[in-house]
Design brief:
Blueprint (H helix, E strand, L loop, with lengths): L8 H7 L3 H10 L9 H5 L22 H24 L1
Protein name: Cytochrome b5
Subcellular location: Endoplasmic reticulum membrane; Microsome membrane
Pfam family, one: Cyt-b5
Amino acid sequence: MEQGGRDCTEAFEDIGHSSDARKLMEIFKIGELAKIGELAKEEGEEEQMCELNHLPDGDSSSGSWRSWLIPIVLGVLATLVYRYFIKAH
């Protein structure tokens, strides 16, 4: 799972798999990854790159306080409901 979504050919070779594992790899092989810009050059288009790691200016981290708001509110609510029913009985 460490190599999920990426080309793991080098990692596969580094581990030193058996010949049976190499046969299974050929059976389950889906395809080969194109190199960056290779598809665009084949189609005669200009190579275009996009920035995937850009964060908006207002959001300095992926784990902003808004992502924690709902779990915190639910936790406080569950605690209050639990204490209410314990004191009621």
